[in-house]
Structure formats: C-alpha cells, structure tokens
Amino acid sequence: MAEKKTLRQEFAKGLIVENPVLRLVLGTCPTLATSTSMVNAIGMGISASIVLVCSNIMISLLRKVIPPKVRIPAYIVVIASFTTIVQLLVKAFVPVLDKALGVFLPLIVVNCILLGRAEAFAGKNPVLASAADGLGMGAGFTAALLCMATVREFFGGGTLFSGADSLFALFGVTSFTGIEVFSRLPPWLKIEPILILIMAPGGFFMFGLLMACANRIAAGRGKPAAGLNGCEACPMAATCSLIASKEKTNEEVTA
Amino acid sequence: MKPYLAIIMTAILTENFVLSKFLGICPFLGVSKKLNTALGMSVAVTFVMAMATAVTYPINARLLEPNGLGYLQMIVFILVIAALVQLVETVLKKYVPSLYSALGIYLPLITTNCAVLGVVLLNVEKAAADTAFGFGASMFNSVGAGLGFMLAMVMFSGVRGKMESSDIPKFMRGLPITLVAAALVSLSFLGFGGIAENIFGN
User: Fold this and answer.
1) Which domain, by its residues, includes B175?
2) Helix (H) / strand (E) containing A161
3) How many domains does chain B have?
C-alpha cells in the first residue's frame, strides 16, 4: 500500500481484484457452511460486513494507541465485541437467521477476513480508507457467498431466495417467500434437485469449481492463481514463524 | 460409558468437524500436505480443544451463567483460548523442544482456528439445551472432535500425496483440485450417517 489510493479504489479492490474469498482465500469455513441458501448467504455476508466495517473503523482509530506487541489480542477483543453486538441484534430481530447460521454467527470473530484486514490494512491506514476497505471486503465476501449459494440452492434445492420472508421482514416485506423453480416445471420436464449440492460434499465441490473459475479469469489477466495453501493469507501467518515455511513451500511449488 | 462412546463416535464419524461441519478448514487445506505436519497439527488441535473445554466449561457454568453474563461468552472464551495457546507454546518450548519445533509454528494459528472456538461454543450450546450434557460429555465431545479432525487430516494428507503425481488440468491445479478431493472424502463420510445411533441405540 505504498501508493495513495482513492476511497473508491479501496472499496473496489475488495470486490474483485482482492476478493477475500476467491483471491485471498480467507474465510473459507463460513463460505462453505453458510452458502446452502441465498438467504443464509446474504445474512452471513451482511453480518460479517457490519462487523468488518465497525472493527476496521475502531482499529484504525486506535492504531496509534495500541502497542504493536499486543496488537493481535487487542484486535481480537475489538472484533469480538462487535461480533457479540451483531449476534445479539440478529438474535433479537431475525431469529430464524440466527438458527440457520448457528455457530457460524459467533464464529465471525475468528473469520480470517476480519483479523486479516485489521492486520493488513486498518492497523496502518486512516479511518476513512479503512472503512472503505472494510465495506469493499464485506461486499466481496457477500458477493462470493451469494455466487456460490445461488448455484447450490438452485441446483440443490430447486428454489431461489427460499425463506426470504424471514430476512425481508426487517424492511416490512413479508409477501415474498422465494421462488420455487423446479416444482413449477411441466411434468414432462420433471427433474429432481441434486440434493448433494446443499450437503457438505457439495459445498467443497462447488467451492473448488468456483475457485477454478476465479483462477481461470485471473490467469487471463496475468495474475497468479489464488493461494495454494489455505492459510497462506491467514493473518496469524505474519506473527508466527509460519511465514518462513510459507515462503519455503512457495519455492517448492515454483521450482 | 455407553453415551460417552456414542458422543465420541458421533463427533468423529457422523458429525466430523472438518468434513461435515466445515470447522477448521484453513488448517485442513493448509497443513495437510505432508503426513507428519498433518499429524502434528491435529495433535496440537486435539490437545488445545480438550484444554479449552476443560477451562471454559467451568468458567461458563460457574462464573458467566449464574451472573447473567452469558453475552460475554465469546469474548471471554477467545481470550482464554488465546492465553491457553500461549501457555502451551511456552511450556512446549521449555520442556519439549523437539515437539515445539514440529508443532510450535502451528500453535499461534490455533488461536484463530474456528474449530477450537467452535467446539467450545457448541458444547455450551448443547449443555444449555440438555442438562444431561455435562462436563464429562463436553470433554468427550471435544476429544472426539479433535480425533475427528485428526482422522480427516491424516486421510486427506494421503489423498494429497496421490494428487502430487497426477496430471491435473491447468486451472484445477492447487486449491481447486484440493477442494474437489475434499468433497470426495467428505462424501465418503456421509456413509457413516446414523452409524453411532445404530450401534449405541441412541
């Protein structure tokens, strides 16, 4: 981040060029677990984005106060506080979503995207840029989740936006409960949904395919493939000695 | 003993943390390249999971819940786990340097491993829903989750070893093919559905 970027650029890079899920390979656990339906994906994406923007702003404000040695615990406390707030809000206003996301809502706190952005960006940059970065990363996360969830829900469940009333009830819309696609097909075109896609193996499989597509597109633009190691971009890699072994494995790969 | 065995079997096979609950995917993908690192990481994770549960369960049951501080669970748990991991790292460095050189580099990663926080949160959730799910059950569940993580890691390192010598299409190389392979391993674990209930009669 040597050169100055405009706020718009900070926001836009999170969407595609540095998409947290597809390019930086952060936050794989919630991506796999909550992309079973579009509503879950949107709920998870928005919740994580709120935490991301708030914690980015807070960490950026505190960046000159926090001693570098204890910065990781400090970041974790800030992120945990905002995650708790969001969790309680979701529990209070969208209880169905809280049930659907289950343990992954509180687990936003250990989502690598949050600590990763705190470590790589918010701890070093001014408030507005950090907020834009958080917003962009959050949007990129939501977009990747939604992308996967759309395919998984459509082919795996035969619906789109199923259960949308629980989420949209927040805005006073309860009439839209999603679109049944497969059950509306004429009898001669009767297809059963591929149930396995919304189960665990389907999550891994779809993520693999999505990753391959992202790598293909990146290669077309002369960019390297996304990290070979799942935890290559993990924020803790910078603080632990794994960074050394990480470079070693990179050399092995290129050699 | 029977219910405890059922809990362990369920945690290892039917509700495998990595392959059916999607917890701890980062180490699963990142550290499963070689058998010894996969084994080391999973031993470290199992150990920290058991320790974390042993420490956080009483904190939650004796300190947080009676005082109506349940909403602080997450903050307290993550700090306790972070301190615990630091402690384990220091102890290993001092007393078992050979183990430290093998596991030490993964220990800091475990702090932000969702599997550890996940098992702690799930235990608390289960204990809140079912009063019979006490400290013993929580411990067995944690150890089972850790062993399940180990099983997945070790199996997958074998799969990845085979993949090294295969001819893979260019854009599937690296992470995509790893994920597809993980899907197949996960598929095989679907076959264990209901096995614990059938053996131990629920």
Assistant:
1) 2-193
2) none
3) 1
